[in-house]
User: What shape does this take?
Amino acid sequence: MPEIIKNGAIVADSWQLLQLAAGETAETVALPAGPLLVPLAVWQARRQELAARGAAENTPLGVWLDAGEGPEALVGDLDKLAVIGVNFPKFTDGRSYSSARLLRERYGYTGEIRALGDVLYDQLFAMRRCGIDAYALRADQNLEKALAGFATFSETYQAAVDQPLPLFRRRAA
Assistant: This one.
């Protein structure tokens, strides 16, 4: 079973990441059994089917957003989703940082937000500051070494999801 970093620890990952292959459509792709992270297009096309399946099998639901997809599309469904994945197609593409922060701060999502795709250990500190709490690192990354990425900096200056007060306000208190 693959492993991820979740809440600062290495854990087994029971979720399957569903991706559409060439020629597959959201309406016709096969849905494997078990906890499943589906693309936003599949969720939008088959929301009722996935919700019914989740209830019947007592299986949690998850959706992943590609870098160009905003979390606004999920606002009415946040209470149904145990996991929301945010995809980083390239480590230089930072749009999913914004999606994670919006999910936490604007929409009040309290479930797991998982970083997917081209995730490297040196991004973990910044990802956590945006509200991401689970990380499926790229296959060539060492999870044990990656845990050190959370301790890269001892203090932060800016306000973020993990520390709403900037440093100058914390020092004044």
